[in-house]
Amino acid sequence: MPARLTAYIPDQPAVVRLLEDEVSHRIGRASDCEVHVGHASVSRFHAEIAGRDGLWRVHDTGSKNGLRVEGQLVRVAEFHDRTWFSVGDVQCAFEPLDAEAAQAHREAALARRSQSHALSAQLRPDLGMSTLLPQALDVVLQLSGLERGFVLFAEHGEPLRVRASRGLRLEEVASDRFAGSVAAIDRALATARPVVCGDTGQAPWLGSRPSVRIGGIRAVICVPLPMAGGATGMIYVDSRRPGPPVTDLDLELVETIARNACAAIEVARMQRRIDDVAEAIAREEAQAPLWQAVRGDAG
After folding, report:
1. What is the pTM (predicted TM-score) of this model?
2. pLDDT for 14-38, tens place per residue?
3. 227, 241, 261, 287: which one has the fewest Cβ atoms less than 10 Å from its Cβ?
């Protein structure tokens, strides 16, 4: 019987994996672990879990910070029902699935990737910047399931401006009344890396911020839009509603959309520059004297 394992990593998206029975799955910080948990409290090869005939067994593989099942420090544990265990400071939810539920899990992931591909195809350069930026925001909101957001964008040497928003008025975003996470935006801009928090209550650096507490924000995703020529941008989305955790699949799909949006924006910017040059040439040509007029004046 297969199972689903969800690792709730502080300051990161939750890692969700479908575990097949009769197969051993390594849990750890090493990138080649079947359940990769990138957190400092987790050893490179922290634990291993395997199932057989509906009975699952997890054992510590020599970790530094230990394995706990239902709060108890153990070396080995067996279970066949829903169970919580932790590797280091990372809480993991184990849930057995029947064959139908496991297949539904696989199909849902495939459907979301297909949806992401279809939505990415809508981000066309010919739409122009004024349409591309709000459309990219709409796609990210749809894929992430979050509630509201906005897009920041600036050409080289210019200040960031709010170019599109959903669920927030433009004047709210660009004022001290902003009820979003300034800290998450600052971190994403400074590191040029996504910032994801599925539960701000579990992230002291974020949950303690006045803007987050006052705004009642539960989840945040900030994805940079790196572009050539010094231009920069950011898609910010958040949610105040209770809901499922932000997962590693959510981040994967959002980052894919961001990359595709960047490519479309680059082409749109290039086309705009070409159009500007063409207009300048046309103006110069229109101002040049006509030979027929010169010839006529000369008699």
Report:
1. 0.79
2. 999 999 999 999 999 999 999 999 9
3. 287
